[in-house]
Structure to design on (126 residues):
């Protein structure tokens, strides 16, 4: 059972929880199901990537093909999730910019008036 505590400023997706048997605070990432005792930081997550790459190299050197496949799958899954999160942020920024541009354009009675008052924007290419 996961007991949620009031969150401090944690990285997105992380929750601060308490282990019911020990009473210790730990951190849980819902999407990846990763748990850790230390507060997750950008630096610690970057270290996790370096550690995963080091494990991958060690497995490859020892010809442990099964471990190499597992590590590659885990690294790829993480990269896909990160790319998806970035794509979502990019899409939201473009959507916000389009809404702002549409609102700006709607202030003018005609396209001619719009372009007179907005000289730094290129015209739409229809």
């Amino acid at each position: 059972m996961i007991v949620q505590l009031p969150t401090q400023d944690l990285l997105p997706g992380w929750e601060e929880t308490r282990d019911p048997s020990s009473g210790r605070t730990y951190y849980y990432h819902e999407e990846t199901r990763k748990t850790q005792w230390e507060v997750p930081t950008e630096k610690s997550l970057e270290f996790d990537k370096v550690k995963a790459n080091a494990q991958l190299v060690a497995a490859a050197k020892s010809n442990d093909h099964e471990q190499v496949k597992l590590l590659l799958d885990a690294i790829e899954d993480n990269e896909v999730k990160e790319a998806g999160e970035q794509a979502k942020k990019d899409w939201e920024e473009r959507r916000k910019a389009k809404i702002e541009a549409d609102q700006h354009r709607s202030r003018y009675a005609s396209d001619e008036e719009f372009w007179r008052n907005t000289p730094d924007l290129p015209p739409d290419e229809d």
